[in-house]
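Mods, move this if it's the wrong board.
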Amino acid sequence: MTPEVGSVDEQLEMTFCGAQFEAGAIPSLRRAGFPELFPRDMTFIAPFELRALFDLTGVPTGYWNPTVFNPNLQSSVSLNKGLLVWDQIGMWDVYPDRVGNLATSRLTILGNGFYGLDNIRLQLDGQSVVGTNLEVITDEKLRVDFDLAGQPQGEWALVADFADGSQDLLSEAVRVETPLLRIVDYSPRKGGNTGQVRVLIQGDYLRDGVVAKLRRGADEITGGEHGLTRDGLVATFNPDMAAPGAWDLVLANGQVPGDEAVRAGGFTVEAGVAAQPWIRIVGEAMVRTGQPAFYRVVMGNRSNVDALVVPVTHGLPEDVAWSLKLPQGNPPVVQYNSVRSKVKDGKRAILLPVTRLPANQQSVEYQLTLQVPDDDGNPMTNRFIQFGAVLEK
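Not the wrong board. Structure tokens:
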């Protein structure tokens, strides 16, 4: 739905996007304790798009829930807090609202009247940091950079100066702090001492240059192959011959001396068990010809060390079309350019070299799609597919 913000006394044209809208669908704005607001004019564009003109004259400020009602189906769908009705030019939200004072941070600010903005700044106790690289995306949304390196910690106000001489202030809008590391969660929490174990660590202020370690007294095992993903920091430990027992999980920040996050006794080193990979295929063996059949392939590893370079082979009849949807990862456990297909004696073999199966039953999944040819022209014909998978241990 667009836009997300409207002004009191505005004639606001809104676009509703969804699915299965009827030609007689009725859009509205709803809010508990107030009369439902219907549009002055409405246009049915397609089953997935409606446009409506709302008169916001005298409408109370705050969040409203855009709703579409299908009269024939007697059903409605509503977007909670989808529209904010605002009564003045200015700012009403900023994210992130918590940033570090070591480098430049880019903020997204929501409000109204940004096409008339002159400049924007952060302010604390008489100090100001003027925003740079200002990007006004719409009249209600902008992005801007603030160089906060070396700035004091505290709750900074956000000040917007407009070309008409007006000003808006959002007090205590952004908390600036020294970005100390913090471990929030991680998995797995144990691993064997005869191989590698890859650990995903989630926390605050993870960045390039942060190193993960296992520490026990004076002994340290530094993680290798560090990588930042959307899910957190990935580190690979090789506790080969390390003493079994509880070890501290440590994050060390090379940019700030002494900045460490420690989860005391948070990782257990166990006696290593040889890799024990397994595989399962979920789906029906009897499929309809000419129609795609989808199979969920699940792999795992019962060991407490990662299984490395695990060849997987799928076997199926030569005339069955196939495709794969492989899992995403950093790095990926299977790459599309490494998949191979071979045919011999009417049988097809699909070869997938799986680079790593994580320890401790962390599953890896991908999708295999098969389609049996419709040789007799009858779309109701079913056929039994004899196929499977071989996983080399």
